[in-house]
Write a structure and sequence with these properties.
Length: about 270
């Protein structure tokens, strides 16, 4: 899921359905695959507004002007996958090529690794941090942000509030200004979330992790991130094959964290 799609979706979720911003975002989402070919005048006509209103709206989305907005739309049109090497493949393509049975064998192997080979001491340390820190936030992009939302929901059962947002600009602002009393949980299969705006054109470098005073925990399959000075705790895993199983593994990782948390601190409803 690209940054542009995420920002437009955020507008439709945050603004009133009767607002002009909601209307423009809805029209743009309906034409998401043609945006890079639509002029500002044509977009204004589609939305029944003036060109100046469209210009103001794209600035609200975080773009300098409509030209930059169209450039991002063009970039979004390219297929967005995490490439570990040339053999990496997403779940859908793997099943189409190899079939369901072979995919399930690969997935089961990855699940076993997650439960039996992921460092238990790191998980135990993590749940202590989650319990003890005053402020805890979880972020990611695309599927990884879905994991952050799922983690927020899961921890609500333990009466532990986890802040998250799908708005990428609010994520960066939060990280940049986070204090020492904050624990940041970052879901990033590739680990690139720490260094780059991966869904923006040319993947510009990210500085917020150099500015933050928070403690940073990274969930990733990129073991090289263990050495990154911006990461305080790295919880990683391996894949049997190069299938991008992280959307599935994230949810099971959350369950493993919840199990460790409940074993250590109990379940509030049972007290």
């Amino acid at each position: 899921m690209g940054t542009l799609y995420t920002r437009l979706s955020s507008i439709t979720g945050e603004m009133s359905p009767e607002s002009i911003e909601h209307h423009i975002a809805r029209v743009m989402l309906e034409h998401i695959h043609q945006l890079n070919n639509i002029s500002i005048g044509a977009m204004a006509d589609l939305c029944s507004v003036s060109k100046s209103t469209i210009s103001k709206f794209v600035k609200q989305l975080g773009f300098e002007d409509y030209k930059e907005f169209k450039a991002e739309a063009y970039s979004r049109g390219k297929r967005e996958v995490y490439i570990k090497d040339l053999n990496t493949i997403n779940i859908t393509d793997y099943i189409l090529q190899k079939g369901t049975e072979e995919y399930l064998d690969v997935l089961f192997s990855d699940i076993r690794y997650l439960f039996f080979n992921t460092d238990s001491k790191k998980i135990d340390h993590l749940v202590t941090l989650i319990h003890d820190y005053e402020e805890v936030a979880a972020f990611g992009e695309g599927y990884s942000e879905t994991a952050a939302l799922n983690f927020q929901h899961k921890m609500s059962f333990y009466q532990k509030f986890i802040y998250t947002t799908t708005n990428d600009r609010k994520q960066v602002e939060y990280i940049s200004h986070a204090k020492e009393n904050t624990l940041l949980l970052i879901f990033s299969n590739s680990g690139r979330y720490i260094s780059e705006y991966t869904h923006l054109t040319d993947a510009p470098s990210k500085k917020c992790f150099e500015e933050t005073k928070a403690k940073v925990v990274l969930f990733t399959s990129n073991r090289e991130m263990e050495k990154d000075p911006r990461v305080d705790l790295c919880i990683d895993w391996e894949y049997k094959d190069l299938v991008q199983n992280h959307p599935v593994l994230y949810q099971l990782l959350i369950e493993r964290i919840a199990i460790a948390y409940q074993n250590k601190y109990g379940f509030p409803m049972e007290k």
